[in-house]
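User: Can you recover a sequence for this backbone? Please restate the input before giving your answer.

Assistant: Of course. Working from this structure:
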């Protein structure tokens, strides 16, 4: 069997397509089409895109992509560049540069410690002098009032402590509740007609928003538990929304022309068509887990 690139190129020429025209049909950049025809698969973004681009190219020129994909797997057409990792040991110069920074902080720490000792000593001496030599002698009656005042101070201190504890608990609760988990959308697999994705940390109910693109109309449908819950013919520029049943863990979205529609889940874009394949019916199977 001829090489994959030669087979696709001959099929393109037989159809009478130029590379520019094929780029418009497949939405694959012209430089990637050239790399495919030259069997230079290592220049493509990755294995997933190599298989997807070859499949789209073959469909566009009316040949079966499966023999090409089998040849790709068996013939090791994709050449991955080897990566080398070099662990560099820290240089002596960098260690010498770090040591002066540590030493420069030592005098500041010593001065701060001495200042704290001096201030503490002055405060202690002042308190002792006032205790031993009070300026005004207190009458005996003041002792009774002092006990009452002490009780008042203790009560005020307890109330203040309770208020601070309550405020701290409120701030902590508010901080914890304000942290939100961001939904995560993962593309598991994709073919010409089937796409599977996993959606995690989704807020229930999941609202699916369809936006019609300028490329043309698109029939959309939503299937849950084998029954259609929504059907609509989406026009360019039109935006429609449908909510999935509460806590539905799986759903199938049917797109009559996948390249003519964009999808959001609860306002977050769903990148279900990274290769830009359009004009064909595709089924999007969603597996959903909630917050």
């Amino acid at each position: 069997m001829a090489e994959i690139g030669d087979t696709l190129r001959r099929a393109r020429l037989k159809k009478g397509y130029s590379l520019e025209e094929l780029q418009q049909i497949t939405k694959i950049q012209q430089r990637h089409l050239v790399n495919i025809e030259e069997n230079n698969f290592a220049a493509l973004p990755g294995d997933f895109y190599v298989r997807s681009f070859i499949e789209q190219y073959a469909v566009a020129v009316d040949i079966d992509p499966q023999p090409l994909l089998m040849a790709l797997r068996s013939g090791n057409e994709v050449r991955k560049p080897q990566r080398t990792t070099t662990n560099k040991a820290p240089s002596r110069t960098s260690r010498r540069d770090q040591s002066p920074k540590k030493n420069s902080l030592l005098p500041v720490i010593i001065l701060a410690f001495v200042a704290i000792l001096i201030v503490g000593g002055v405060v202690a001496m002042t308190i002792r002098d006032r205790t031993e030599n009070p300026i005004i002698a207190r009458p005996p009656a003041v002792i009774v009032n002092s006990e009452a005042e002490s009780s008042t101070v203790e009560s005020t201190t307890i109330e203040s402590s309770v208020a601070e504890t309550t405020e701290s608990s409120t701030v902590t609760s508010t901080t914890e509740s304000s942290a939100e988990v961001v939904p995560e959308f993962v593309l598991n697999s994709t073919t010409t007609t089937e796409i599977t994705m996993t959606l995690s940390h989704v807020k229930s109910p999941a609202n699916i928003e369809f936006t019609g693109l300028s490329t043309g109309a698109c029939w959309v449908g939503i299937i849950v538990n084998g029954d259609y819950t929504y059907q609509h013919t989406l026009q360019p520029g039109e935006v429609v929304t449908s909510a999935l049943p509460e806590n539905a863990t799986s759903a199938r979205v049917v797109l009559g022309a996948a390249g003519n529609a964009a999808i959001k889940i609860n306002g977050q874009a769903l990148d279900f068509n990274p290769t830009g394949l359009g004009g064909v019916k595709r089924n999007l199977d969603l597996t959903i887990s909630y917050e």
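That completes the design. The beta strands are 184-190, 194-202, 207-212, 218-224, 227-234, 239-243, 250-255, 261-265, 268-269, 282-290.
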